[in-house]
Amino acid sequence: MVHGRVSRLSVHDVRFPTSLGGHGSDAMHTDPDYSAAYVVLETDAEDGLKGYGITFTLGRGTEVVVCAVNALAPHVLNKDLGDIVGDFRGFYRQLTSDGQLRWIGPEKGVVHLATAAVLNAVWDLWAKQEGKPLWKLLVDMDPRTLVSCIDFRYITDVLTEEEACEILQQSQVGKKEREEQMLAHGYPAYTTSCAWLGYPDATLKQLCSEALKDGWTRFKVKVGADLQDDIRRCRLVRNMIGPEKTLMMDANQRWDVPEAVEWMTKLAEFKPLWIEEPTSPDDILGHAAISKALAPLGIGVATGEQCHNRVIFKQLLQAKALKFLQIDSCRLGSVNENLSVLLMAKKFEIPVCPHAGGVGLCELVQHLIIFDFISVSASLQDSPSN
Amino acid sequence: MVHGRVSRLSVHDVRFPTSLGGHGSDAMHTDPDYSAAYVVLETDAEDGLKGYGITFTLGRGTEVVVCAVNALAPHVLNKDLGDIVGDFRGFYRQLTSDGQLRWIGPEKGVVHLATAAVLNAVWDLWAKQEGKPLWKLLVDMDPRTLVSCIDFRYITDVLTEEEACEILQQSQVGKKEREEQMLAHGYPAYTTSCAWLGYPDATLKQLCSEALKDGWTRFKVKVGADLQDDIRRCRLVRNMIGPEKTLMMDANQRWDVPEAVEWMTKLAEFKPLWIEEPTSPDDILGHAAISKALAPLGIGVATGEQCHNRVIFKQLLQAKALKFLQIDSCRLGSVNENLSVLLMAKKFEIPVCPHAGGVGLCELVQHLIIFDFISVSASLQDSPSN
């Protein structure tokens, strides 16, 4: 049973100088220093367990997120952990609807990143006290308790609490088998590590060759800065991986809507499964227009790593704006908000493929996607990682 | 001519305890302390002029915005003011697309509020050096220079630079007369000061009576917390102001989409001109659904004070989601981004009625709306303040 009162919240500004090697570079983030605001929760319980939670950042600005975590701290300090997770919907609402703090969001940008870091730490502590990894805590939780963690505000026109429960109930069938499958084989993945935009062709070639040897079958290439460069790099990768393996492209929001359609029409010959983040993460109708234009070319639209909350995801689904939905474990409001997005994706039959390029993201997101497979989507079919 | 190098940027956390009297209270912000992050720019020029810029906040969290302003400061310090305003589009892009900082936005929430405060200070300094109020600086600027201040990224599918120029050219006719009209009569306004949600009925009655004596003809009432309260308060105000004067309602994002329609159907008997912020500021499709449902009742949807950038406004216009567009002088990226929204509103023939309830907002926004009347919309027709 969860227990203890939160006695301390500390937050650290952790930065890695990844820009020195061009790692993580793309068309909009040319010099990222992969970083994180790192939250540690301690309680007065005698077990000595701590909750660790992060939100991913790119270097400069991490101190701003740290400042926002400290602004949220009074909502967490001296709270009983049992009270927090016993009314997790209420606690989520308390953090995101603080009558003064919400003005500088609401549920977006710095304050929402900070909320994610704090809530990720709460979930981590809860799972540790239960002696389970997070995915297993979620998988073992009954549907009613799971949905009680979700704030349905602003999404009831698409997903009510009752519908969410029904989805979870229906996915009970075969859960045990899917859990065994995950334990035996893990969840399929792709690699972006070969083709960051800042890498010279020689590096790209070498890394791609190594990845092929290591057994990778799905490769993502960063595009969007220069069309001739993109054509050369995509040709290089497609030639190396052959026609059967999967190629994805990622423009990191570089284009306007007409430009995205034009550019991708020229890259269509390399048979990409998807174009990721073709334009502004806020442009739902823009993504819908791009999806419609690229569908005849067999190219799907993927987006989500900078979609700031469940309201944006709701509309992307309503507008048929994406074919692959990319949740982020610490841009959305932690597990709580991700649960609502996984359930909406299931309702619209859109596969989820999480964003995982960053400090700690792979570690966090594996729990969400394994839970999704076992308890929600129940399928690897049509998954971009498949 | 603009001159001088920015030698100092200081930023202050200014708070007023407005929550003590319930001033500014609404259905989502029950205890706001009207506050601001206040930026002062100094140059090495001998004129000793300083640029003042703010962004409005509600108390807690102002320190987070201050932290973000300091994170942006290196982009401004030691820059030549002539270089900044000479390539204002580029400077706006530099602030909003910093390859590391944009991750914690982009162009939304804390970093965008900070961007607005910094840019507002730049515009203030520019206007002071020219010896003009800001509205006059804008009105006297030729169309080509005006559009060179706008970053058209992500809006070219709706408004190109050429179209923006054409709109401004077409509105040259009658400019002089409209400027004289503004100088003689000012711009019409409404009042929200009578009916904050936290006011008891006696206060509401007294303030409404005083406002009527002072000659106000348009009144806004906060709604959304409790239907019976809303009915009582709206009846009270409508009875006091009579059937001819204008009544508006403001729910401050309290409702989900179906709830908004249901609630407003019950308040329709009080003949509101508009319902403001019926749901999440991020829900473009939700606003469109509400607009469609309430149109037969003669109620328009107004929104914008928490629309975080031009991409959201673009879509609200594309989706026919609003009948009145409410820009904010310091949530959008200052004058630069507001110019793009004023021009898009003109293209879609939607009247602009700025958000002005907050510290310094009335002072800032009067410049934008006077410019809009003289140089863009050229009309008070259909304006909510009319």
From TrEMBL, chains A, B:
<feature type="domain" description="Mandelate racemase/muconate lactonizing enzyme C-terminal">
    <location>
        <begin position="201"/>
        <end position="297"/>
    </location>
</feature>
<dbReference type="InterPro" id="IPR018110">
    <property type="entry name" value="Mandel_Rmase/mucon_lact_enz_CS"/>
</dbReference>
<dbReference type="InterPro" id="IPR036849">
    <property type="entry name" value="Enolase-like_C_sf"/>
</dbReference>
<dbReference type="InterPro" id="IPR013341">
    <property type="entry name" value="Mandelate_racemase_N_dom"/>
</dbReference>
<dbReference type="InterPro" id="IPR034610">
    <property type="entry name" value="L-fuconate_dehydratase"/>
</dbReference>
<keyword id="KW-0456">Lyase</keyword>
<dbReference type="InterPro" id="IPR046945">
    <property type="entry name" value="RHMD-like"/>
</dbReference>
<dbReference type="InterPro" id="IPR029065">
    <property type="entry name" value="Enolase_C-like"/>
</dbReference>
<dbReference type="InterPro" id="IPR029017">
    <property type="entry name" value="Enolase-like_N"/>
</dbReference>
<dbReference type="Pfam" id="PF02746">
    <property type="entry name" value="MR_MLE_N"/>
</dbReference>
<keyword id="KW-0479">Metal-binding</keyword>
<protein>
    <recommendedName>
        <fullName>L-fuconate dehydratase</fullName>
        <ecNumber>4.2.1.68</ecNumber>
    </recommendedName>
</protein>
<keyword id="KW-0460">Magnesium</keyword>
<dbReference type="Pfam" id="PF13378">
    <property type="entry name" value="MR_MLE_C"/>
</dbReference>
<dbReference type="InterPro" id="IPR013342">
    <property type="entry name" value="Mandelate_racemase_C"/>
</dbReference>
